[in-house]
Amino acid sequence: MSYFSIDSIKDRTFDAIVVGSGISGGWAAKELTGKGLRTLVLERGRNVQHVTDYPTTMMRPWEFPHLNQMPKEVKDANPIVSKCYAFNEDAAHFFVKDAEHPYVQEKPFDWIRGYQVGGKSLLWARQTQRWSQFDFEGPARDGFAVEWPINYNEIAPWYSYVEKFAGISGNKDGLPQLPDGEFLPPHEQSCVEKYFGEQMAKHYGGSRPIIIGRCAHLTKPNPIHFQQGRAQCQNRALCQRGCPYGGYFSSNATTIPWAMKSGKMTLKPDSVVHSIIYDEKLAKATGVRVIDAKTKEMTEYFAKIIFVNAAALNTNLILLNSTSHRFPKGLGNDNGLMGKYIAFHNYRTSISGEYEGFLDTTSEGIRPNSSYIPRFRNLLKQETDFLRGYAAGFNASRITFNDRSGMGEELKTSLAEKKYGNWRVGSHMMGETIPKETNFVALDSNLKDPWGIPQLRVSVSYDDNDEKMVKDYHEQLTEMFTKAGFKNIQTHDVPNKAPGLDIHEMGGVRMGKDPKTSLLNNWNQLHACKNVFVTDGACMTSTATQNPSLTYMALTARAADYAVKQMKAKNL
Ligand SMILES: Cc1cc2nc3c(=O)[nH]c(=O)nc-3n(C[C@H](O)[C@H](O)[C@H](O)COP(=O)(O)OP(=O)(O)OC[C@H]3O[C@@H](n4cnc5c(N)ncnc54)[C@H](O)[C@@H]3O)c2cc1C
Ligand code: SF4
Fold first, then answer.
1. Pocket test for ligand 2, best of 228, 238, 366, 369 (most atoms within 8 A of CB)
2. Whole-model pTM?
């Protein structure tokens, strides 16, 4: 133990501690330091500094030893993370490798993680949609899980707040199921994406809009973005390498350097949080136990408030591992529901086709975004035999190929000339899954990780509702593609695919109105330990269809504002 004196304890005492430096932890750090709190940010992974630690960002395709493919031996050694579409030579260094951080798959679950300063904010696809009141009302209306303790109006100003700082591009589409935000100019849709939108308007009378995705790219930076040291997105679409321009939102380019500039943040990488310390006499948390990732030495750090932002499943792990006489089942876990009601998104299935029109037009140029089909099922009324609905991605680009026939000069010439085929159209489903008690995570009673912390046991699977939704998506999208005149329509499903690859795991420490049925209140405070806040995906009561990270950002900023006010009022 590295604490010997009163001074040492003082050195290890802060106003606030944030666990994790990814998308939500970065926001907690920025908000808490911005409000004057001396804040310690603990990150289990290595430091990754904006620009200097993006080793592949300027590499050309031929400079990668395997032309950006992963060698077979790497894939064989990493069967889980290799399934992620972004796990290639250019970004593999930002992903957790299978053997390094073991977990128990009670049922198959592909857990994709990024352990470093910035977390998965270096890897994400940057799609950012607000939730609507349909989503916050979902559980109460449809009778599943538990009622949300907040509504859209309460979070809307916080969406605006984080959107302005992060920089979100999009179009104001005026859709009740996908509220507009504070948008920078939108990316353009390709002519076939626009055509599809027109056809859907004709056939479905405006109920199935096809919009450009809303995404965290600086299409036209505002002064606040230049102050962050970021520049306009250059449309390179190499984002998962880390962007040297700061063209997209990441913790590394945006919130962490901003918090650092305040002079109030202490960032400690290689610091694995083991558990939260609970003081029985004070009846509150007083700090955290941390294991040095390299030396495995344990140290304690202290603070008045603690934000747990280790990403949904790891936040569950830390809290379940935070046992005391008062909380033998995990911090704040009086009702035994912690770790339960895990939910995720269902990205299992897709559909493709071709369009034979617009053959005088190409889709040259790169766009780090695609089109989006907001949820249209079961919105105003229940119309199917499954609960909730799905959103979908949509993309159209021209098929290109080279004629490889012929010999000698003829072959060389044809190889050098790109030929264009039909337009290829494709969509993937983004389904809401229903949180259920039987989908849970727990601590394994025997197995430990290399830092002596119990391994997480994951028991999560699809259910009948998901299967029915997949079937409906196939039927509805086939109908929509047919109406648009698309040909060669093929649905693609992988029935045995494990959940997890959508990388949107949520729940386990859900928000709610009643301490008997939830762990967190409407301000993301543990009901039973008010100075601990959880604002990452663990807090989510239900999942909606939208990509979740924008909602984590808004909830974090809102909770941080509340926490500081409560602290100043001496209520924490
Ligand atoms: C390829 C890919 C594409 C994605 N696309 C999208 C998208 O388009 N839109 C979207 O909304 N989301 C997307 N996501 C998901 C998004 O990245 C996550 O929702 C988001 O990063 C979650 O934020 P977080 O703060 O909860 O976790 P993270 O960003 O993962 O950060 C958690 C941090 O906590 C640290 N940590 C964990 N345990 C401990 C511990 N014990 N002690 C100390 N530190 C710890 C981790 O190392 C990590 O740095 C995508 C993810 C991936 C990988
Ligand atoms: S598309 Fe934009 S954000 Fe992505 S790497 Fe290129 S410049 Fe950076």
1. 238
2. 0.97
